[in-house]
Amino acid sequence: MSVSILRDEVVHYEVLGRGRPLIFLHDWVGSWRYWIPTMQAASISYRTYAIDLWGFGDTAKNPARYSLDEQVDLLFQFLDSLGIARVALIGHGLGAVVALLFARRYPGSVDRMLAIGLPVSAEVVNPRLRSASPAELADWLLGRTPATEAAWTEAPKADQRAILTSLAGLQNLDISTQVRLASVPLLLVHGQNDPAIEPPPDGLAGFPDHTHLIQFEGCGHFPMLDEPSKFNRLLTDFLTLQSGASPAQLQLKEEWRRRVR
């Protein structure tokens, strides 16, 4: 287990591979651990890091740190402690929100971003995320398979106050506007059958050209676990785009269209 001491508190993370850095940020359900298969696939070419955010996994449980601003600051402090100047971000749910806000605050530090299940407004978030316990959320959103075992195991470690505080922060945050103002290439991924987060109701209407949306048919809230081969191929295609290139180029590949259906 690897830890950083940030602001006198423990932040847990894990790292695999060598090469350009990738940061994986987890959802409201689970921790760094469900990223292991994706990290293993990406670590062939990249140095992959997965962090437990404040209140989750084995990172410190301190309610004073649970706001979205504090989670963004955790990411900044973590990158600064490792001397990482520019990075690709892969965020899921809560992690997608944190990644987007970080990219808005520090655009020069983000090369590109892949956001899975990003709630573009508070209205697209199922109220059950606010009322159920971490264990109940795992029971709702995760099937009982070997691939989901890690998320099942880690979900009860979360402090429910960390979930509720970050969701409350969404109430006063216009994520759609944040997406429109983001200057970094952004790939949005949604599971078509996600019961927790609805995809953008108007698709990409009003979003910039460097933003692209792909929906995974038949997938729920965890497309990286439901369809790992497809997700990992998409991630590889996204990461191999030239710096600054729009992920909309991915739709031009007929072989990619066939394999995400």
Helix/strand layout:
Layout: E1 2-6, E2 9-16, E3 20-25, H1 36-42, E4 46-51, H2 68-82, E5 87-92, H3 94-105, E6 110-116, H4 128-131, H5 134-141, H6 149-154, H7 160-171, H8 175-181, E7 186-191, E8 211-216, H9 223-226, H10 228-239, H11 254-260
Parallel strand pairs: 3-4, 3-5, 5-6, 6-7, 7-8
Antiparallel strand pairs: 1-2, 2-4
Helix pairs in contact: 1-10, 2-3, 3-8
Polypeptide structure, described:
The chain is of the alpha/beta class and 261 residues long. The protein is built from 11 helices and 8 strands. The chain has helices at residues 36-42, 68-82, 94-105, 128-131, 134-141, 149-154, 160-171, 175-181, 223-226, 228-239, 254-260, and strands at residues 2-6, 9-16, 20-25, 46-51, 87-92, 110-116, 186-191, 211-216. The chain has an 8-stranded mixed β-sheet, with helices on both faces. The N and C termini lie far apart (38 Å). The model is unreliable at 252-261 (pLDDT under 50).
Which key phrases capture this entry?
alpha/beta; single chain; disordered C terminus; 19% strand; 11 helices; 8 strands; 261 residues
